[in-house]
Every structure is written in structure tokens, then in C-alpha cells.
Amino acid sequence: MEDLKMNYKFPKDFWWGSASSATQMEGAYNKDGKEQNIWDYWYEIAPEKFHNNIGPHNTSNFYYKYEEDIKLMKELGHNSFRFSISWSRLIKEDQSVNEEAVKFYNNVINTMLQNGVEPFINLFHFDMPMYLQNIGGWENREVVTRYQNFAKKCFELFGDRVKKWFTHNEPIVPVECGYLGHYHYPCVVDFKRAVQVGYHIMLSSSLAIMEYKKLNQGGEIGIIINLTPSYPRSNSEEDLKASNIADLILNRSFLDTSVLGEFPGELIEFVKEQNLLPEYTKEDMEVIKNNTVDLLGVNYYQPRRVKAKESKIEEGAPLTPESFFDFYDMPGKKINPHRGWEIYEKGIYDLSINIRDNYKNIHFFISENGMGVEGEEKFKVDGRIEDDYRIEFISEHLKWANKALNEGCNLKGYHLWTFMDNWSWLNSYKNRYGFVEIDLNNDYKRTPKKSAYWFKELITNNGF
Ligand code: BGP
């Protein structure tokens, strides 16, 4: 790839670190009062859905090993780490607070602060408590209120020390995977229900922001969105239109709402035309308008290459966003062969410029970016994984991030997905993403990979 320049310097106070989520790393799925979430339940009824039948019960055990892990973060030079609070661990079905969970999260937060690793906390990372899914999950307005209460409780319990909060991780995922595809429970394909879910998630985000502001705790609150810049195949009217719809549904429905406080007018038109309008109230729309985010986390993995609809829609097939556009295979594109995702480093620059120019130049950070690799053991030399491909992946993305920074983008940090290899939705341990290897056959022993030391050096120099 084009070498943009030789030295890449980042600001002194740049946030360097990594991200993970409760279900993917905690373990102790049924210990100390934790109740079931949709993942625990789904694994119970359909273990064959999960790669090698490994479910969320087999994670890296951060619940028991957090001290060791946080010390390792410090050793590796990280100044921040994002994790999520498990709703079904903290709040019981009878709505009381689980004191064991409070103790655990307090210990984690305090240990992080003692080690100079700033906690960034996210409230929802795909893990709906089963007792709430049973009453309709995000389709039910009551669940939005229950989330609002959960968020408020988290701020009250931990907000004296935690100054970076996020309401959701990738709000589109429960919509797209749970209600437009078969990837997440409840595996429904119904565009209208999906729109209701998306609307309620965005409303819940604004209500959490409202609660946070009332408490005046002196921190910041945002949301984490996975932006997938949408590139049309050509400049033909049809391709441009298709790419615009993809962008509208997949990016702007979440980005505009969070930062600007309104659903894009075009999206509302589209939803009305297709008879997909969700149930909403004027009061709730006011809440969305008045409670926008202070900062943004952007997860960036891959772009979307879009063309006008060419494939036939099967008779009787349900309406989905993909009824309105097709994806196309761009010749010569770079691919991560393990995960099948396109690698397009410049996407990070394009999305940054978009935020600078169209979203109030709000401050944001890259909250996830990473490379999942299958069979990493084969890159082991003298007991350590020599993941030069990951070093290249990170540095190529950082070059473009650096260019964005130099052109006035308000970029504050970079977090890799993820700190240590973790369990993933459906794919379990198929693709490894971490700076640190987890040995599943040896009590989840942690061993830093080559990239961990390279990243440490980068942090020490604030550049490379
Ligand atoms: C993001 C999620 C993470 C993580 C990552 C990698 O979308 O926020 O939870 O899993 O993607 O994806 P995967 O694990 O599916 O390869």
C-alpha cells in the first residue's frame, strides 16, 4: 500500500488500548447470581449453532483472572480498556441488584484505575437477559424502560470513577442479526419488527444519556457504532441510489440519530413508503432530539461495496434491506481470508472525514478494528505467535487514521479488537483477534503475541 509518509505521530494523550465484552470474556455464566441471557439460552437449546459446539460458557474467564489481565494491560502499555457490564449479571429478574456483581465490577474498575488503565464502560453488547427476551426483548417498550433503569443504576454505582460511558455497541447488530437474519437469537426475519427494534434501541440510548446528564458526574457518554462506508460500483444513477439506501439504513439510521438527534428525513420517507413505521410517541421523539451523544466510538472492520439491485427476489421471500440493493465483489479487493472480510484501510480515513464534515466534528475514537485469524498456532515460534500480519493490519489502518488526524478530524484514540483471544458469537474461537493468546487446553493461559510488544513500543513513542 502507498506509504503516506515515514513517521506517524499521535497526540500525547491518545487513548491506546483494546475492547471486549462481558459475554465474550467473563465466564462464570451461572455463578454468583448471574442469570441467563439470550446466548446462554440459545446455547442450551441449539449448541450445534456454535463453532465446534463451543458456547458462551467457555470464555477466557476474566471474571476470575481480571487482576492478572489488567496487570498485563499495564505491562503492555495500554492506557484504556473498554468492557461491558452484563445486564443479566447486575440486575435480577425481580429487578433487584446483584451485590456479587457490584463487587466484581467495583474490583475491576478499581484495579484498572490502580494500574493506570482507564475504564471505558459499555452498557449493552448483544446480551439481552432472557427474562426480558421472554417479554419481547427490544420489541417491547417496557424493555426500553428496564434498560433505562439498568443504565441509571450503573451510573449511580460506578460513575464516581468511570468517566467514559457508552450506551450500546453496534446497535445495528441485534437488528440485522436478530431480526433480519438468522445469526442471533431470536432469529426472526421481519423488516417491520426489525425497524421497531432499531427504533427502541436508539430510544433507549437517548434515555440513558438523559439519565446520565441528570446525575452531573462530570464524564462523557456516547455510543459505539460500526460504520461501514458504502461505496457504489459506479456513478450511474442506479448504483448511487442503491449505495445511498444502504448507507441510510446501515449507517445513518444510527449515526444521525445519535449525533444530530434525528432520524434522516429520507429514511423516514423510505420507512413510510414501505409500511414499516414503528410505534412511537411524540414524547419519545423529543427525548431522542434532546439527548445526543458527547462522543462517538467507531468500530471499523470493512466497507460495503454496493450496486443497484440485479438479483431476483425469490417469490414469497420476506422484505429485507437487501431487497433494495446488492453487494458486489470488487475486483482486486484485499481480503482477510480467515474471516472473509474485505480489508480496506482507507475506509478509516473516509469515515473520519465524514464525521468531521457532516457530524459536528464530534470527537470520536476507533473503538474496534482488528483481524481475526484462524489457526494462529501455526505462526508460533519458540512459544510465541509471530503475528506480523496483525502488525501490518494495524499499522496500515493507523496510517490513514493519522492522515485524518492531520486534516482536522477530532480523533482521540485507537482500540484493537481485542485484548486477549475471546469467544465470539457463533464463531466461538475460530478466529483469533487478540494481542494475547489464550490456551484453551491449559487453563486459558495468557501469552502475549509479537503484536502486543510492537503495540507497546508504538504507545511508548506515540507513533511508529
Ligand atoms: C464486532 C463485535 C465484537 C466482535 C467483533 C469481531 O462486530 O462488536 O463483539 O465479535 O465484531 O467479529 P467476529 O467475532 O464475528 O469475527
TrEMBL record:
Belongs to the glycosyl hydrolase 1 family. Keywords: Glycosidase, Hydrolase. GO terms for biological process: carbohydrate catabolic process. The keyword Cell inner membrane does not apply. It comes from Romboutsia weinsteinii. SUPFAM superfamilies: (Trans)glycosidases (SSF51445). GO terms for cellular component: cytosol. This is Glycoside hydrolase family 1 protein. One of its GO terms (molecular function) is beta-glucosidase activity.
